[in-house]
Amino acid sequence: MTEAYIVDAFRTAGGRRKGRLSGVHPAHLAARTLDALVERTNIDPSVIEDVIMGCVMQAGEQALNIGRHAILESRLLPTSVPAVSIDRQCGSSQQALQFAAQAVMSGTQDVVVAAGVENMTRAPLGISLPQGGGHPRTPEVFERFGVKNFSQFDGAEMIAEKWGFTREQMDAFGLESQAKAAAAIDAGAFDAEIVPIAITLPDGSSDMHVLDEGVRRGGTMESMAGLEPLSPGGRITAATSSQICDGASAALIVSEKALKDYGLTPSARIVNLTITGGDPVIMLEEPLFATERALKRAGMRLDDIDLYEVNEAFASVPMAWMAHHHGDPAKLNVNGGAIALGHPLGASGTKLMATLIHALKARGKRYGLQTMCEGGGMANVTIIERL
């Protein structure tokens, strides 16, 4: 089977809800990221065979195949490059990367872009739900699983209860995520992976958006303790949940033939691609079990992995993942996670991959693992080898 390589991956800096990126159309966000990928990897854009764009809220400005709209908005990609938009909930662009890698591994394509976009200010959560009646799930589904609703908030609380995590423990995790993200920004750890985005400020002046906007500095356990839980009597608060975020990301996936034909230098080799489905009620626990399968199929142990990116949808998710696998805290989300940096839904998969690749490079490490919990009780796992 043909190997698949990641030439590189890049992302925009996250924008807070109604923040610095709120005035930027999602197609523009995605297009500027695609252009930066072409410029920084020196790939001839005419040889790109497909763009696979992750996007969750495919309605409003993100409707009608946002991936294709990004190409038409691009300054560099010709209109001959096709695109498709996919939704695997929070894992959408991680799945885009896995589909791209599968296309390369199968030998059907040699150069594929995996990308993601979500402007959650302009296409907010719930915009894609039916208006005026109807529901994506039938009454039989609710009856089958004995619930009135499938809620990620409930799932996060169920995980905290199952694993015995206290409010204080999760607050401490959230505080550490903020501290790691702030330290990474101060050290310039994200500089190489960030695509600057031109923005217009409220006063009409222009600026470049280059810093993750959601990081909260100066927080304390005392200030976090004063926050109300998201659910009555619950343990999860806004400080231990991923932030609503606007952003885009992209990665270039190629074959060995493409590396030689186009003079490209790979950043990483794809080692394993795994996707599993599990309990749709507790929902967010599936990364635990998907990781077990991925490691087994790769013939690896967690000790072989140098860094892991476990999406911080809620603090209880990576905490349960760590407890289940007896992970090393020094390897987890070393530059902070979505609690501090934001979770732009469909863009988060290739966003985390960009951070993982650059963090491995900065530390001279070899193997990285990325996993993402997803609505409906699914999880993606991708293992890479930095080259």
From TrEMBL:
Protein keywords: Acyltransferase, Transferase
Organism annotation: Novosphingobium colocasiae
Active-site residues, record numbering mapped to chain: C90, H343, C373
Family of the protein in this entry: Belongs to the thiolase-like superfamily. Thiolase family.
Taxonomic placement: Bacteria, Pseudomonadati, Pseudomonadota, Alphaproteobacteria, Sphingomonadales
Domain Thiolase N-terminal: 5-256
PROSITE patterns given in the database record: THIOLASE_2 (PS00737)
Gene3D superfamilies: 3.40.47.10
Mitochondrion among keywords: no
GO molecular-function terms, A-Z: acetyl-CoA C-acyltransferase activity
Domain (Thiolase C-terminal) ranges: 265-386
Keyword RNA-binding: no
Protein's name in the database: Acetyl-CoA acetyltransferase
